[in-house]
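Help needed: design a sequence for this.
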């Protein structure tokens, strides 16, 4: 059993291991492309899709750059947009439990479609659940 086989995700907390497990910048771009495609296709995401502009170019870029730093890769979001302040950045949106679940369902499906190791998929999704809770601002 290798260190990456541990289900607690500890191996992905070392250096840029999580960023590399996601395929680096290009791997994250593929994930985000899949995520937004799913958001456009799924009826249960209609509410959260309407929270975004029709043109998703900026949303794709921001989420991609955010995830680079989130996964301990380069801090590209900070370099381009400044410090990450997720709750403040989403304060103007009504994000409750239903919206959180819809976002996470799309992200889980997108993660599951990627050629990531299963242990990384689980680790990454668990972290995103915590982050999604931080962004929720409605009951």
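Sure. Designed sequence:
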């Amino acid at each position: 059993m290798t260190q990456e086989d541990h289900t607690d995700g500890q191996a992905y907390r070392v250096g840029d291991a999580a960023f590399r497990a996601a395929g680096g910048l290009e791997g994250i771009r593929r994930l985000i492309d899949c995520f937004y495609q799913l958001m456009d296709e799924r009826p249960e995401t209609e509410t959260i899709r309407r929270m975004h502009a029709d043109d998703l170019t900026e949303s794709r870029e921001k989420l991609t750059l955010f995830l680079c730093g989130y996964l301990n890769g380069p801090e590209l979001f900070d370099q381009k947009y400044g410090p990450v302040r997720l709750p403040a950045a989403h304060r103007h949106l009504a994000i409750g439990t239903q919206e959180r679940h819809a976002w996470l369902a799309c992200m889980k499906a997108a993660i599951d479609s990627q050629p990531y190791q299963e242990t990384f998929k689980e680790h990454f999704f668990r972290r995103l659940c915590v982050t999604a809770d931080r962004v929720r601002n409605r009951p």
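Residues 1-6 have pLDDT under 50 and may be disordered.
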